Amino acid sequence: MGEQQHVKFPQEVIDEYAALGIDIVALFSAGHLGSRMGVEIVEASADRVVGTMPVEGNTQPYGLLHGGASAVLAETLGSVGSMLHGGSTKIAVGVDLNCTHHRGARSGLVTGVATPVHRGRSTATYEIVISDEEGRRVCTARLTCLLRDAPAATN
pTM score, two decimals? Predict the structure, then answer.
């Protein structure tokens, strides 16, 4: 996932995780599944997370973007936002995801933008809007994550 080295993070986030010796690009990535699907995080903060995913390779038998692929993109972006909201002392665990699919996409890239609906001490909820290259809404999703205490570091 070398492409993700160009993710824009707020400086205070970079500083917080650097002080802990944590690679934030790896921590706030799409993971193995997202990597296989071509998900790329472009911008990441607790206020807004943006990512892209190719339609090609992520389609169902009719040649349309698979709804599950949209769900992977949505959960990835909402989880990254939740983790950034929780900070280095918390981990975010998805507990509810819903997706409404508005239109099909057959080619190109889709872009997801996650913005917070609720950011509390124990949960965070993000709305994720996924659009095609013409700016047409393909999917609207909502993800709620439980914020748990991060495990203590062991040396």
Answer: 0.89
